[in-house]
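Our example pasted here:


***
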Amino acid sequence: MNQVLRAYLAITVLAISWGTIPLIIKTSDISSISLVGIRTFIGSIFLGFILFRKERNFRELIRPGFILGPLLAIHWVTMFESIELNSVAVGIGLVFSYPIFVIFIEFARGTKPMYYQIVLILFGFFGLYLLLDISKIESLNGVLYGIISAISLAFIITIGERYSSKIGGLKVAFSQLLIAALILIKFTFDGWSWMVSNILISLFLGLILTALGLTTYWYVVKVIKPLAVSTITYLEPVTGVVLGAIILNEMLEPKQVIGFSIVLIVGVFQVYFDSKIKPASTL
């Protein structure tokens, strides 16, 4: 298996595993902001332990940390709030409008994606739109949070790509987690008793989904472009919605099943085209 296919396999597994996050949000008796604080706190400690064993020069971490850390805090807080205020389908569906914003940012940076990539992004978003049942919107504030989360995520992936290629995914993940953890430390302490009482869930969220997840994410971004990553990560909301339907009894309508199928098809075509077509920068 070549490096590109390994990267696609990694982001697929990661997207599916991140799809469990809405269930943690919906089933936990703790504020969503405290959950974000807990995941950044545990994740930064774990990655810091690994990094400090083999790294002594941390000057190169300052800039990405102070740029990506606040963006990460904004993204996760608004995402968790959006999911908490609406259904899993609505909340996570809004957040994953972010590939559309990635397209705009890429054009603003002077990058011209290939036609097939734009078509896949838009077609995947259409599938996500079918999966997102607008009639179930319960909070306009939740909608606003979801859009803010999507925009911040678009900036994270487009800005972080350069830093990941330069200093490595582990360092990028640690630097942004550390700053995000410091920003949210007050909310982490607010949820301290919950974290201790639910240590296994906290460790799963902080170690597996956050520390390991972010490190894997930035490794993938070094290998395949942000737009391609965006296409595959549509699997995250799909997983969240399907698990929400199974565990939380959030019913799926026929059009949502169609949307689910479209997202899967888009993912398959993304891998196929990326293995057949060499990257290009002209429209």
User: Anything to note?
Assistant: The two ends are 30 Å apart (CA to CA).
